[in-house]
Amino acid sequence: xxxxxxxxxxxxxxxxxxxxxxxxxxxxxxxxxxxxxxxxxxxxxxxxxxxxxxxxxxxxxxxxxxxxxxxxxxxxxxxxxxxxxxxxxxxxxxxxxxxxxxxxxxxxxxxxxxxxxxxxxxxxxxxxxxxxxxxxxxxxxxxxxxxxxxxxxxxxxxxxxxxxxxxxxxxxxxxxxxxxxxxxxxxxxxxxxxxxxxxxxxxxxxxxxxxxxxxxxxxxxxxxxxxxxxxxxxxxxxxxxxxxxxxxx
Length: 249
Known about the structure:
Elements: E1 9-14, H1 19-31, E2 36-40, H2 48-54, H3 58-62, E3 65-67, H4 70-74, E4 79-83, E5 94-96, H5 97-105, E6 113-117, H6 126-129, E7 134-137, H7 149-165, H8 181-197, H9 209-220, H10 224-237
Parallel strand pairs: 1-2, 1-6, 2-3, 4-6, 4-7, 5-7
């Protein structure tokens, strides 16, 4: 099974606590043609339980990338999905698995894509979910909506595999590559510094201003050139010499 889009999709497990879930996720991925597994601060890995649960997917485990943070795991990604079961105070673009996968497979050629799965007990944090362009939900029995981590990975990977087999419209052409998450984070930090310098944003009481601005920019889907242009506008408004070295968080 070869699909060039699959090579650009990474499954990211954030702080998994049980190595069996890592092995189960690797097996789920391989059965659906995916191979790029990224772990953020796993509690136990490598571990014999991961190898045992992976069954015939040891090659996926051997190629695992381990990162220290979500930002590191997705820095070069152009489109990021976060799995979520809870509604948020500030709503984010949200779709069920099939709708998200349709959008995922329609990303421009060359786009790196990540699907984030959170901790077994608490999922993804609000801050991590704000790093995502879209949130994904798997519909389940409202009386018991909890899915095992590896099972959730299986559901999403199956949807990717299924939709990839169906004929569809080619990804839309664009004159510039999409912005990476690293570029977006640089823009957000620059924007925050400028807003503080111009006294639009009070660093002691920022409220939800930056969260809402982040939602706008992720929803728009900036490309590489647009990100550079906006950074240029910000630099013209407030020269770098007038900015603090470290923008407030």
